[in-house]
UniProtKB/TrEMBL annotation:
Binding of 5-methyltetrahydropteroyltri-L-glutamate, residues: R16, E17, L18, K19, K116, N121, R519, C520, W565, E609
One MF term in the entry's GO annotations: zinc ion binding
Cofactor: Zn(2+)
Family: Belongs to the vitamin-B12 independent methionine synthase family.
Gene: metE
Catalytic reactions on record: 5-methyltetrahydropteroyltri-L-glutamate + L-homocysteine = tetrahydropteroyltri-L-glutamate + L-methionine
Domain of life: Bacteria
Descriptive protein name: 5-methyltetrahydropteroyltriglutamate--homocysteine methyltransferase
Residues the entry annotates as binding Zn(2+) 1: H645, C647, E669, C730
NCBIfam families: met_syn_B12ind (TIGR01371), PRK05222.1 (NF003556)
Cited Pfam families: Meth_synt_1, Meth_synt_2
Alphabetical list of InterPro entries matching this protein: Cbl-indep_Met_Synth_N, Cobalamin-indep_Met_synthase, Met_Synth_C/arc, UROD/MetE-like_sf
């Protein structure tokens, strides 16, 4: 008998109930008890949805982030919050979100650093450690949820992050190696496992996704040390790996002295047979056969074709699961009211993926004939997608085939272009600009919602957005910025907005996925060959330009970022989809140029994070990603100035690729790192212009003129002043006008001071 189980379930709720509860609580509009009651109700709903499983994950629910939860479980709070007064939930949210000086009672403290969870668009709070860090167990959260689950009558399997992955994700504040803390950490894990055993847990899922990355010998040894130390515990451990292949870690993973191993059979299909061979006969193999990273229906018949021989070999030792936690997919396809019927048939969200798992389990345990109808239906859906004329567009395919290197090359070298651009744009030294978005006020969001619900007309909606754009332009003129933006009021999200307008894309109503904390994204669904029926941004940009004599920067999202933040096709390589996007956005660039827009920014916020988890695959990715950007951007005249923006600045390993993009100006996030991140641009003699951010937009704090001047002077020690721009770290959409105006006033004042000091 193969068992079926799940690694984790989305916690935001089918209608984002958790988001609204969190935000109401943070605004002081609801009590702690109300927030906790919503959370409890959501967990119950989630367990109901997973009732058919043999093992249900517990402890995967989080009020903010599962890594932060683990830090609290291990008693690893940053020193700066440890002694502050308030409830446990208070300190939890303090680490998660920081607390600013203007909150009542103060206790102000900066938030923990946030970074990407492997190659997903989910962000976790980075655990902070030093050589002095010591741990202590606080199992309350897990014990409470375990008891709740037992009461709800589900077979509960607690889920925790494993000790090696926990340390690997940690950042040492004193430059030490977090791995050195392993000996102090392991007794706490032992204690935790014993505590869970006492509470009735039979299995514990212990996530070690770092096993799919390149590990040096110390980290590999860390695995051996850790699991030998934990083997004496009474619970059975299922070590879970996901997001990739094990490769050189395969033997290590198979030999760990634990009761079971979960592997990602979507990205790591090729290794399953080998893992099944290597695992000794006392161990369970959990095969992650259903893709937890996308929204396509699984081809169940094809899956059974390769799974059945494995099942035969393993018998009772086989478990079936999604490839990874379902955190990365939306909750329920059944919520959708407007999805095209063809496309709906091709999709599976979290609930539907669990249905697929159940069918697979039955087919394996009782024979395919017992689920013949379901398998036939599934086959129909798979065939319909494969053969759909809506997926395939021969014109697009041939356009991609005809791409030549020349398409991605500017007419002249940067040194020649820049002179023409300067005389054309007439910009001062240290020109000032912003990254694109201005605050997305509740008012804007309400208007868009009303428009979507057809409560207001398209005309009224457009009038409202135009008024917002005019407001943003007037404010920027008052501020004295040099290159203006229209403010992106009309965009729900920088990726979804383009997805909605491109052919080959579908979008959902409720397909939300958590990005961080209460913030969610609704990745559009790239299902077919991509083309652009008509201009997407030109009218808005032209309108904005009509309001001012200052240069108006056209604002686009680049192909790599659109790709990385969408649900994409699994029937062709990502590189193909990316090139198709590149050709479509290139058309938009050229239409903007033809409409008289002289400065065009193409955001590639997700280019760096899209790097594969293994370094050995980086170059291939960078080759097609950078080529896609070049195709998008570089078909313009010398006089047209191309900007790009990336929100992260650790470019050490990829500076060559960044330079090869050949954007005239790149704006990056640097304010928090004190400009040290520019070192690599200096060392590499990066040739083009750079706008290192001087305003940390993630914080409500308002930068002073002096701070901005100081940061820019540091920048000028590394990059010649003639090539520097003055701008914030990123877009301002999550901030409020009351913060943005004084911050930008100080930024512009700083630029004036810098100019005065330069002559
Ligand atoms: N795709 C993507 N990934 C990204 C980023 C990004 O900007 N986009 N930025 C980085 C950080 N991640 C972020 C992710 C989300 C948000 C964010 O602000 N999300 C918003 C939703 C944005 C959105 O799509 N808004 C829609 C829908 C708004 C909405 O929720 N409307 C309510 C009603 C609104 C009201 O009455 O106030 C409803 O439909 O019920 C719109 O503007 O139209 C949120 O969670 O609140 C910010 C940063 C990395 N990854
Ligand atoms: Zn950004």
């Amino acid at each position: 008998m193969a068992l079926i189980h799940n690694l984790g379930f989305p916690r935001i709720g089918a209608k984002r109930e958790l988001k609204f509860a969190q935000e109401a609580f943070w605004k002081g509009q609801s009590t702690e008890a109300e927030l906790l009651a919503t959370a409890k109700a959501l967990r119950e709903v989630n367990w109901q949805a997973q009732q058919s499983l043999d093992w249900v994950p517990v402890g995967d629910f989080s009020l903010y982030d599962q890594v932060l939860d683990m830090s609290f479980t291990l008693g690893n709070l940053p020193v700066r919050v440890a002694d502050l007064e308030g409830s446990a939930l208070d300190s939890y949210f303090r680490v998660a979100r920081g607390r600013s000086a203007n909150d009542s009672g103060c206790n102000c403290v900066h938030a923990g650093e946030m970074t990407k969870w492997f190659d997903t668009n989910y962000h976790y709070i980075v655990p902070e450690v030093t050589t002095k860090t010591r741990f202590s167990l606080n199992a309350d959260r897990l014990l409470e949820q375990l008891a709740e689950a037992q009461q709800a009558g589900v077979k509960a399997k607690p889920v925790i992050i494993g000790p090696v992955t926990y340390l690997w994700l940690s950042k040492a504040k004193d430059q030490s190696n977090p791995l050195e803390l392993l000996e102090h950490l392991l007794p706490i894990y032992s204690e935790l496992l014993e505590t869970l055993a006492d509470a009735g847990a039979e299995w514990v899922q212990i996530d070690e996704p770092v096993l799919v990355t390149e590990l040096d010998s110390h980290w590999r040894h860390g695995f051996e040390t850790a699991y030998h130390a934990l083997k004496a515990n009474r619970v059975k451990l299922l070590v879970a790996t996901y997001f990739g292949t094990l490769r050189e870690n395969l033997q290590l993973a198979c030999n760990l002295p634990v009761a079971g191993l979960h592997v990602d059979a979507v990205r790591g299909r090729s290794e399953i047979a080998q893992v099944a061979d290597w695992l000794t006969t006392n161990k369970v193999l959990s095969v992650g056969a259903i893709n937890g990273r996308n929204i396509w229906k699984t081809d169940l018949n094809a899956t059974l074709d390769w799974l059945e021989p494995i099942a035969q070999k393993l018998g009772d030792r086989l478990w079936l699961a999604p490839s990874c936690s379902l955190l990365h997919v939306p909750v329920d396809l059944d919520s959708e009211e407007n999805l095209d019927t063809d496309i709906r048939r091709w999709l599976a969200f979290a609930n539907q993926k669990l249905d697929e798992l159940e069918i697979l389990g039955k087919a394996i345990n009782n024979g395919r004939h017992t689920v013949a109808k379901q398998l036939a239906d599934n086959q129909d859906a798979i065939d319909s997608r494969r053969n759909s004329v809506r997926v395939h567009n021969p014109l697009v395919k041939s356009a991609v085939e005809n791409i030549t290197e020349a398409l991605g090359r500017r007419k002249s070298h940067y040194a020649e272009r820049i002179g023409k651009q300067r005389s054309h744009l007439n910009l001062p030294l240290y020109p000032t600009t912003t990254i694109g978005s201005f605050p997305q006020t509740p008012d804007i969001r309400k208007a868009r919602l009303a428009f979507k619900k057809q409560e207001i007309s398209a005309q009224d909606y457009h009038a409202k957005m135009k008024a917002e754009i005019e407001h943003a332009v007037r404010e920027q003129e008052k501020l004295g910025l040099d290159v203006l933006v229209h403010g992106e009021a009309e965009r729900n999200d920088m990726v979804e907005y383009f997805g909605e307008q491109l052919q080959g894309y579908a979008f959902s109503q409720y397909g939300w996925v958590q990005s961080y904390g209460s913030r969610c994204v609704k990745p559009p669904i790239l299902f077919g060959d991509i083309s652009r029926p008509e201009a997407m941004t030109v009218a808005w940009t032209q309108y904005a330009q009509s309001l001012t004599d200052k240069p108006m920067k056209g604002m686009l999202t680049g192909p790599v970022t659109i790709l990385n933040w969408s649900f994409v096709r699994d029937d062709q390589p990502r590189s193909q989809s990316c090139l198709q996007l590149a050709l479509a956005i290139r058309e938009e660039v050229q239409d903007l140029e033809a409409a008289g827009v002289n400065v065009i920014q193409i955001d590639e916020a997700a280019l760096r994070e899209g790097l594969p988890l293994r370094k050995s695959e980086w170059q291939t990715y960078l080759d097609w990603a950078v080529e896609s950007f070049r195709i998008t951007a570089n078909g313009v005249q010398d006089e047209t100035q191309i900007h790009t923006h990336m929100c992260y600045s650790e470019f050490n390993d990829i500076i060559e690729a960044i330079a090869h993009m050949d954007a005239d100006v790149i704006t990056i996030e640097t304010s928090r790192s004190d400009m040290e991140l520019l070192d690599v641009f200096e060392a590499f003699h990066y040739p083009n212009e750079i706008g290192p951010g001087v305003y940390d937009i993630h914080s409500p704090n308002i930068p002073t003129e002096e701070q901005a001047v100081k940061l820019m002077n540091k920048a000028a020690e590394r990059i010649p002043a003639e090539r520097l721009w003055v701008n914030p770290d990123c877009g301002l959409k999550t901030r409020q006008w009351e913060e943005v105006i004084p911050a930008l006033q100080n930024m512009v004042a700083a630029a004036k001071t810098l100019r005065a000091n330069a002559v």
